[in-house]
Each structure stands twice: as structure tokens, then as C-alpha cells.
Design brief:
154 residues; single chain; mainly alpha; binds zinc ion; 2 domains; 7 helices
Length: 154
Amino acid sequence: MDCLEAQRLMKPYLDKKLTDRELAQFIDHIEHCRDCREELEINMAVDTVMNDKDDARDAYNFTRKVDERLASSRRFLRVSRTERLARRCSIVIAEIIFILTILTSVELREFQDHTFTTLYRFIHWYEPATETETETETETEAQTDESEEMVSEG
Ligand SMILES: [Zn+2]
């Protein structure tokens, strides 16, 4: 980002209207460019006097205010990245649930017995099997192969 771009984004920055990407680039520039940082201090001073009346006693300590503001922007970017990661995880979980639902309905139609479904086996994996150990193992393996096939098809 160059100085012209940084100065164009100053007002949107103070109004908290930058995208995450713009905000990250803006902060990087401000932290490395003395001119733009001073410009931002002036802009923030005006903004503070205009909008932040409760904080009027602090209104002349703009250097500290800019530091605080930049630090809070950094925190904001960290949190929103974490949130985005959490959102992506929940989409993956939703997809797994969706696939399991389809798989279970197909299996139910095919076997007419819910104890044969992958979901049932997954939920009851810890329960002692009534059949002999070897038989259960072979069956589970076959079942797993089948489910993998279905997932890749879908
Ligand atoms: Zn600059």
C-alpha cells in the first residue's frame, strides 16, 4: 500500500469501515510510515474532538490514542481470523452430518435394520459386540469400505 492509498483509507478506518484485508494493509503501512502515522494522528484528533466527548480530557494525547487504536485493530484482525476459522470448521462439521444423514438413509433402505448403519456403529462402537470378536471386525471393515465409496461418489 502506498501513502496515497493509506490516506484515502484514513476516514474509512476511523469509521471502522475497512475490510479485514484493507485493515491489515493499512495498519502495516501506518506502522512503517511516519508521515501517514502523523496524518492519522491529526485525523484521529479531529475525529476524537468531533465524536468522542466522554474522552475529551484525553483528547490531546493523540500519540497514545493512535497506539491504542492500532493495537485494538490488530486484536480485531486476530479475533476475526479465529472466527473465520471457527466458521469453516462448523461448515465441515455440517457437511459431515449431511453426508452421514444421506448415508444413513441409503443404508436404512438397503438393510432395513438400523443396527447395520454406519451411524449406529459409530455411536455404539464402544459397546461389547454380541457376535464373536473376529466376525465383528470383518463386518466393520466391510462397512467402512462401503461408506468411503459412497462419500467419494457424493
Ligand atoms: Zn505513508
